[in-house]
Automatic annotation (TrEMBL), chain A:
It comes from Leersia perrieri. GO terms for molecular function: RNA binding. The keyword Cytoplasm does not apply. This is S1 motif domain-containing protein. PANTHER family: EXOSOME COMPLEX COMPONENT RRP4 (PTHR21321:SF4), PNAS-3 RELATED (PTHR21321). It comes from the Eukaryota. Belongs to the RRP4 family. InterPro entries: Exosome_RNA_bind1/RRP40/RRP4 (IPR026699), KH_dom_type_1 (IPR004088), KH_dom_type_1_sf (IPR036612), NA-bd_OB-fold (IPR012340), S1_domain (IPR003029), S1_RRP4 (IPR048565). Pfam families: KH_6, S1_RRP4. Keywords: Exosome, Nucleus, RNA-binding, rRNA processing. Residues 90-170 form the S1 motif domain.
From TrEMBL, chain B:
Residues 19-150, 153-218 form the Exoribonuclease phosphorolytic domain. It comes from Leersia perrieri. This is Uncharacterized protein. Gene3D superfamilies: GHMP Kinase, N-terminal domain (3.30.230.70). One of its GO terms (biological process) is U4 snRNA 3'-end processing. Pfam families: RNase_PH, RNase_PH_C. GO terms for molecular function: RNA binding. It is found in: Cytoplasm; Nucleus, Nucleolus. Keywords: Cytoplasm, Exosome. Belongs to the RNase PH family. InterPro entries: ExoRNase_PH_dom1, ExoRNase_PH_dom2, ExoRNase_PH_dom2_sf, PNPase/RNase_PH_dom_sf, Ribosomal_Su5_D2-typ_SF, RNase_PH.
Amino acid sequence: MRDLQHSLNQTQRVRLDAALNELQTIAPSGASAAAVTVADTIPVNDEDNILKGHGTSDQDGEVVATLCGVVERVNKLVYVRTLRARYKPEVGDIIVGRVIEIAPKRWRLEINFSQDAVLMLSSMNLPDGIQRRRTAVDELNMRSIFEENDVICAEVRGFQHDGSLHLQARSQKYGKLERGQLLTVHAYLVKRRKQHFHHLEQYDVDLILGCNGFIWVGEHVVVGENTNMMEDKPSLSAEVENFTPLETRKHICRLANAVRVLSALGFTLTVELIIETAEASISSNVEINDMLGAEFYVQTAEREAKRRADLLKKKSGGR
Amino acid sequence: MEYVNPLTGFRVDGRRPNEMRQLKAEVGVVARADGSALFEMGNTRVIAAVYGPREVQNKGQQVNSKEALVRCEYRMADFSTGDRRRKPKGDRRSTEISLVIRQTMEASILTHLMPHSQIDIFVQVLQADGGTRSACINAATLALADAGIPMRDIVTSCSSGYLCSTPLLDLNYIEDSAGGPDVTVGILAKMDKVTLLQMDAKLPMDTFETVMELAIEGCKAIANYIREVLLENTKRLECQRG
């Protein structure tokens, strides 16, 4: 509801409220009971010496939340998982970011973290694919690899002692992203999975769910194809190469709008859900631009409520 | 002018002396901001947006790189008061209030958890009807909590005054401009600590205490309301996330 401003009519409002209420009733009761706000006391047993994690502090012997979120308990550890907050990086996360500055031997990237991330020239593969020391010439040619405002996919390598974040892009699958859309959603909507790169074959589209809440929807690129992009390419074929068919563009827009609707509703973004939403829009003959309208918004909420209810039924039936 | 009716004891706008104006708060009203809130106290209406923690934009402003830099900008919209006039940016009044809000919020934000970064708080008054300073602090608290910025405690603020030998809670514009004493108090609600105390007039010591006591009561009521709003928002987000 944050990003899309809808003017719902009376029926739509009632339907939306019903769907959201449904979601509230389905949700496990523990979830809402564990919700805390700033300065709430978190009940703990005094006997077991607990470990205070993120979002908690000690005030007069009580454990007090310093954030709004949900209390999580893992053995002795008690911490508050935030919902709407900036991205908290973990080593190995796959992220999408935008270059904002080129500094000596490094690029600075905006990744929705409290600081800019750093991608060193030495921690990425050269375009020719040869392993060697980076020379001064490489340093001067950095702009030929990434320029300002380029969108890049990379992996979190680690933290420096001063808290700044280092990235790496040591594989063909990382690097510059072209011909597509970058969407920014809240980082809590993307869950860490095994797979963050998705090739949706039926649409010929690549979908990258960055852990930092940056989502890339773009034309599918064959990995390894652009290794010798620098040399010997006649201008004509380059033009053909640069053309994205209309069909693919439409698919990109449709999937991007699906992500927009889902993130506005605050649903966790998974590939399955995104595809399902896009499919639903096709099957009910919703135009791409109408996907951001009030009617589809309400429909999506209803569909999700139904899906979760079915899931719950299946679970309880299976037992 | 009579600010408190000697017969009924009601104030000009029909409130009792220890009655607050109606509160209304909404979280997440600015799409692009990390956190935002709209806060209303009667006819006073304030919007706050928080950006950050983000990379420090002007390295020269950073005093201590181990702590986050907090910045605040207070502004009154041109249409916020009765007479519509262009308000110059950075006049003395708004600079002072910006500073007050910044210092009050900084006391609560755990800045040491966010080194090398800065937090920007923008507050704008949409409708001014007395007590904008308090409303701005309350809105800023909500916006900071919405942005997921760690805080020691919820900061709330409320004003009170002393007119017609009666202590009054939450002054509106008419009472504010009556020229009597106006005490603005900001507290850390749970820790029971005062972070802001401003008064522009003289008051005898014993009356001051009752007036301040009244303002603190008001702050606590606001804190309860803010906590409710935040909790409901958190629950809603968690349920929708699934």
